[in-house]
Amino acid sequence: PSGLRPPVLLPQENTQIRDLRQENRELWMSLEEHQDALELIMSKYRKQMLQLLQGRKGEDAKPVLTVHQANSLEIASQVDRICEMGEVMRKAIQVDDDQFFKVQEKLAQLELENKELRELLSISKESFEVGREDLPD
């Protein structure tokens, strides 16, 4: 009958999956906070650049504009990288969710199989005992 029990690892896997999902949620929140902070920095930077450009004549503004364009490209590249990381994390969360549901489904299948096997074993024992009673002494 010990062969009828589901594997002992499943509850442990459930806990690991739950922990991973929680960690992913925390990482996702952290990523969103970083994106918000970057947006705030960018808006302040743009505001300062605009004030600086308004305070100078056309010719004086060229070097400042060049630096501004270079910085904008660098920041845009960083924003793209953060968005890519977010997408990777979103996919990882989806994979974790899928894995969690697969484990839940497998556990349910094993529990059902276990119940059915126990019922069959019980029926088999009963019929064996009934058969012995019918035998002459």
Automatic annotation (TrEMBL):
Keywords: Coiled coil. InterPro entries: SIKE. The keyword Iron does not apply. The keyword Heme does not apply. Residues 100-127 form a coiled coil. Belongs to the SIKE family. This is Suppressor of IKBKE 1. The lineage of its organism: Eukaryota, Metazoa, Chordata, Craniata, Vertebrata.
